[in-house]
């Protein structure tokens, strides 16, 4: 009688634990890409540095598939550079598990780095 409730609880822990792992990975990629873009002297170079960082390091996160990541980076206002990483998680195993409501399949995280030192 308690088995269905127990299974829902266990599957819920697995689903949301995996989802939060993916969210953390996307946020870390966005933050580190923003930090790496500081070395760029122009807008184009900063964007290139951010995109190259995400491409080179996406494989280090176990639940993220690099081919499902997209990066956008641009200056927001006059003194802040914002890197946004989108991840389509719809093909992940957690969306195939039964009994548990699935979290949103698109993960979007941003990181902003201010210009300074001049």
Structural class: alpha+beta
* Fraction of helical residues: 40-55%
Q: What's the order of the H and E elements?
A: HHEEE
- Which band does the percent of strand residues land in? 15-25%
Number of domains: 1
Radius of gyration: 18 Å
The chain-level mean pLDDT equals 89
Low-confidence runs? none
Please summarize the sheet with the most strands: 3 strands, antiparallel
Strand order of the largest sheet: 1-2-3
Shape type? elongated
For the record, give the distance between the C-alpha atoms at the N and C termini, rounded to a whole number.
Answer: 68 Å
Write down how many β-strands occur, each being a DSSP E stretch of 2 or more residues.
Answer: 3
In DSSP terms (H or I, runs of 4 or more residues), the helix count works out at 2
Description:
The chain has 118 residues and is α+β, with helices and mostly antiparallel strands. The protein has one domain. 42% of the residues lie in helices and 22% in strands. The protein is built from two helices and three strands. A three-stranded antiparallel sheet has the order 1-2-3, with helices on one face. The longest helix is centred in the first third of the chain and has 34 residues.
Q: Which helices and strands appear, and what pairs or packs with what?
A:
Blueprint: H1 3-36, H2 43-57, E1 69-76, E2 80-88, E3 106-114
Antiparallel strand pairs: 1-2, 2-3
